[in-house]
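Sequence and structure are no longer studied apart. As an example, we show below a sequence and the tokens encoding its fold:
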Amino acid sequence: MPNWADATALIVIDVQQGFDDTEYFGDRNNPSCETNISALLDAWSSQSWPLVYVRHDSAQPRSPLHPSKKTNGFKPVLERGAPDLVVAKSTHSAFYGDPDLDAWLRSHNIGSIAICGIQTNVCCETTARMASDLGYDTMFILDATHTFDIHPVDGQTLRARELSRTTALNLNDEFARVVYTSELVD
């Protein structure tokens, strides 16, 4: 078993092909998300640090993320190497998946994590909040996440860039340190 006591695990959340379905999800922000994730994967691989992929298995049959759909698979950016753990979940937090992420991290003496992936304000934010509550030193890599515009019932569209900004404001210093890819790979 590798000694990762001083390593930070990269938790790559829901980077799946189904999120490319703009008819289902709508317009997104941050077109550099996948490029930044690629840079992070290279940096983590060069250090032989732990890498965890999380996959959302939607319970909704029409969802592009339903396990019966090919689009449930990971995007090509994640095909560069094998992760140390793959977690399947059907909830917002990666900590409620299978296998148990918290148990795996603790069994490997990992106390620090860095979060990236899709969606900034949903599964990524939820995982960061829960990681904080569980006592992990948590980094949230804002420019290695993206989200989608939402259209609430009041008709006032909330743009993805504003949702990302709000997530950063909500998380920073309270639940996680909000960082950028260049801070971790340069």
